[in-house]
Amino acid sequence: MKKNQLTLNQVKKFLLIKGLMITEKNKKNFTRNNLKSFYLTFLCSFGIILFFFILPIIFELKQNIIFASKEIQNNSKTNFKKVLNGERLEKLLKADDEVDLKNLFEDIDKLDELPNDIIRLSAPVIEQLFKDTNYNLENVRKTKLVKPISLSLLPIEMNKIESSKKRKNLFIQIILPLILDENNRIKSDRKKLFSILNKNNNSELEKKWLNEKFKQYGVFNKDLSTLKIRMDEIPTSLAIAQAAKETGWGTSRFALEGNALFGQWTWSEEGMKPAAADNNTTHKVMKFNILKASIRAYQRNLNTHSGYKQFRKARAVLRDNKSELNSLILANYLKNYAETGIQYIVILKKIIKQNNLTDFDDVKLQPSSIELKSLI
């Protein structure tokens, strides 16, 4: 042992003289305090790490909850069931009063973009096409099948066909496949909508599709009951009757020059001004590049405009009763379509009955074929 090195006993004696004492207990307390500090430090560090790990998960969960509440009001599913169970529709369809016009016709504008290869076929050529493909209304009434012949324009000779029966048949043959095709599109969308609503969780693609449909049908608050009521078909016989009434069975200037089958009004500069309109008239008739766009715009009009809310209500009641969409019933709710009001309804019903148009309400559009397309 070195002389200058102090022993533990010497240190104890020195501290004792000074009034201090080192005991084994103090050493144990010192060790215990050190371990306690270590544990506290470890727990605090773990808590901080865990907090920053969980924080993004909590934030994402909160965002999803907010998104779901804003984008899809699932409680409207309950409201819709109440509607179909007979509660007062006036109360539950308040959301159907308002229409968001911002994106209402966006898809129609895209559909109506003028094709580069559009051709106006003459009446004799169209008649021969129908004959070659064995497409006639007599067969349609028997087989309930319609050839998928899609024409973009009416023949310019429509107003020169002297036989009213021949003119009417040709007009129906041209627009019938187009009306069925648009109804099939709505039917497919409606089927997808109910499929989505029957799921507990929906994919991002399904949510995106729903948002597109909310825009197309002008649903302000993304209410599902309103979307379900608006997204529905127009009876084929009713569409044919209204087109016949508005165009004189395809002979009007609006039909031949503007492909306007339903006389819808517009206040834009691109419309067609009625020849008999006075100088103070501000409205015009909407014009289209192709007939199909006119039909889709007509369906969108009946399915969204506040003036046809009662029409949509009556259609929802028919659906509730598991009944077919009856054009003679639904026509009663279209007095706002024309200035003549009730008289307009009388004329529509007369057109439907006299021409047996309800025969076409249950017909189906045949699938397209390469051979048929090559004939067009």
Please, could you describe this protein's structure?
With 376 residues, the chain is an all-alpha fold. The chain folds into two domains: 10-68; 100-375, Lysozyme (Orthogonal Bundle), CATH 1.10.530.10. Helices cover 57% and strands 2% of the residues. The protein has 17 helices and four strands. It has helices at residues 8-17, 24-71, 75-84, 89-92, 106-111, 123-132, 137-143, 164-197, 204-216, 224-230, 236-247, 253-258, 291-304, 309-320, 327-330, 342-354, 370-375; strands at 145-146, 265-266, 284-285, 364-365. It has a two-stranded parallel ribbon with strand order 1-4. Strands 2-3 form a two-stranded antiparallel ribbon. The longest helix has 48 residues, at 24-71. The chain is elongated. Mean pLDDT is 80; it is low at 22-28, 61-87 and 370-376.
Q: What is the assembly state of the chains in this entry?
A: single chain
Radius of gyration: 37 Å
What is the global morphology? elongated
Helix content: 55-70%
**Biggest sheet record:** 2 strands, parallel
Strand order of the largest sheet: 1-4
Distance between the termini: 117 Å
Q: Could you name the CATH class of the largest domain?
A: Mainly Alpha
Number of DSSP-assigned strands: 4
Mean pLDDT: 80
Number of helices: 17
What's the CATH architecture name of the largest domain?
Orthogonal Bundle
Share of β-strand residues: under 5%
Q: Structural class from helices and strands? A: mainly alpha
CATH topology descriptor of the largest domain: Lysozyme
Topology as a string of helices (H) and strands (E): HHHHHHHEHHHHHEEHHHHEH
Number of domains: 2
